Amino acid sequence: MPNRIGELKAKITSMDNLESAADIACKSRKDKLEVARFEADRKNKLELLQKQARSGTIPVPEYRFFTRVERGKVRDIADLPLYPHRIWHQALAQVLEPLLDSRMIYQSFASRVDHGTQKAVVLAWNYVQHEKIKYCLSLDIKKCYESTDKEVLKRTLRHYLKDDWLLLMLDHIIDEYPRPGISIGDRLSPLFCNLMLTPPDHYAKETLHCHCYIGYADNRFVFGNSKQWLKKIEVELEAQFNAIGYTIKPNWVIADLRTEGVDFLGYRMFKTHILLRRRTKIRLRRAMNEIRKKLESGQFPDDHDRGVLGSYFGVLKWCNGYNLFRRYIWPVKRMLDDYDRWLDGARAYRAFVNLNSEVYL
Fold it and tell me: Which of 11, 34, 52, 276 has the greatest count of CB atoms below 10 A from its CB?
């Protein structure tokens, strides 16, 4: 068992940590009424939160649920009140995550600092290009958050933490969620999920000797040069995940990297090139057509339009997507650039007129 982490109460409940957590929790909700109410009495509310946290009397949260459809998947998203729960969860996360990050394998990505999608794509491409790598086993956990066993999660937390006060607070957070598993939308849920999947990851790396291995959220990828070996790995990993309450989807595949390519985080990777996934390509085309029609009709672009354009431009940078860029991204970018030049000219003209009116006055 690794050295367990303790004595975190003072650091988590310090006013500096709570202030930082409040800033982050309010940052993306500045237009919400609950933020205005919190900011109106910020100091007193943070002092009360500090007192409640130290005494272990954080009130039971009232979860609000709403449904969101993402890429054909219907998800029930849990939303917590800003004060005290979102701020409190953020305060816990920003202390725990740096300490627990070292317990995870390097090849585990998503919801970790400096372990984002781009690094995962680069690492996978390095594996795919290796001369001895021919196949890739792709696994997906079924409803990872909803199927998380709360008791197993508590035991897992005790494997890494020994602070009784902290474990009690985390137990309350886990037990107070009214549905099975852990919530989608909670600040601590990605950390809980990564910790739950860390023992199988270590088993794959250290016992099964899966040297070319990548974990991304609830997906697992193992690269090798033998289909028979990868089939044995699948059986072993499925047993490990089943032991902690997870189920592997039956649609796992062993892809031939020379002919089929592996479906990896929005791309299809082959030995010689990387293509954009077909579904992603369709979404890109639709999004660019919507922005183009908006600009052609004389409507002004908003920040969301610019964000969509920038995100797809970034996606295409990591694959052989020059033709897609020239066909869909480039025409919209030119229209936006023309609009920006016109806007700059209009601003300069207004400034010139205002300056001359002040001079004559």
Answer: 276
**Which positions ≥6 away from 261 have C-beta within 8 Å?**
255, 268, 269, 270, 275
pLDDT (tens place) for every residue of the chain, 361 residues total: 568 888 899 999 999 999 999 999 998 777 688 888 899 999 999 999 999 999 989 998 888 988 888 766 788 888 899 999 999 999 999 999 999 999 999 999 998 999 999 999 999 999 999 999 999 999 999 999 999 999 999 999 999 999 999 999 999 999 999 999 999 989 999 999 999 999 999 999 999 999 999 999 999 999 999 999 999 999 999 999 999 999 999 999 999 999 999 999 989 999 999 999 999 999 999 999 999 998 888 888 888 888 999 999 999 999 999 999 999 999 998 888 887 777 766 666 566 556 555 544 4
DSSP assignments along 165-184, one per residue:
HHHHHHHHHHHHSSSSS--S
Q: How far apart are CA 182 and CA 89, in angstroms?
A: 14
Q: Are 276 and 267 a contacting pair, CB within 8 Å?
A: yes
What does the block give as tokens for 217? 């959220």
CA distance 240 to 28: 38
Q: Would you tell me how many other CB atoms lie within 10 Å of the CB of residue 354? A: 10
Q: Which residues pair with 248 in a beta bridge?
A: 141
Beta strands at 253-256 and 135-140: parallel, antiparallel or unpaired: antiparallel
Q: Give the amino acid at 72.
A: G
C-alpha distance from residue 228 to each of 67, 92, 131, 250, 319 (Å) = 42, 44, 18, 18, 30
DSSP 206-255: IIS---SEEEETTEEEEEES-HHHHHHHHHHHHHHHHHTT--B-TT-EEE
For residue 192, what is the enclosing H or E element? helix 189-202
Tell me the helices (H) and strands (E) count for the chain, helix number first. Answer: 14, 10
Sign of the CA dihedral running 130, 235, 110, 317: positive
What whole-number distance in Å separates Cα of residue 221 and Cα of residue 291?
36
**Strand-strand pairing, 73-79 and 64-70:** antiparallel
46 and 15 in contact (C-beta within 8 Å)?
yes
